[in-house]
Amino acid sequence: MKMKENRKHPRYGIASMAGIYLSGSEEPMEAFISSIGRGGVGIYSPKRIEAGENLMVKISFLQTNGNEEVSEIIPGKVVWVREFHDGFVIGIAFTTLDNLRYSKFLSYIEAAAQGSA
After folding, report:
1. Mapped to the 3 state alphabet, what secondary structure does 73-86 carry?
2. Which of 13, 30, 74, 82 is the most buried (most CB within 10 A)?
3. Is residue 83 part of a domain?
4. Within a 10 A sphere around the Cβ of 103, how many other Cβ atoms?
5. 3 within a domain of the structure (yes/no)
């Protein structure tokens, strides 16, 4: 089944983990990141998160020099949810991603675009 592509920014395949903070929760739910881009992130989650839910996504990655681990917590909103095996594939759009506050994350995305992340 082909899904309609509504993204403004391309996504890049990576293998990484995210911490998902749902509204009212202080403990993150761990999820596997399948793809990421300037506009959002695709995750595999053991739990369903409903479309329309606002949340925070904590993404940790190594800087392109490989020496510094960086964690960013980015606000997002669930755009779509699909059941997949024993879990869920979830598309999250970032709701705020300004160049100044998230400069290290955006540099990481640029490196992913060029194949060096």
Report:
1. EEEEEEEEEEEECC
2. 74
3. yes
4. 11
5. no
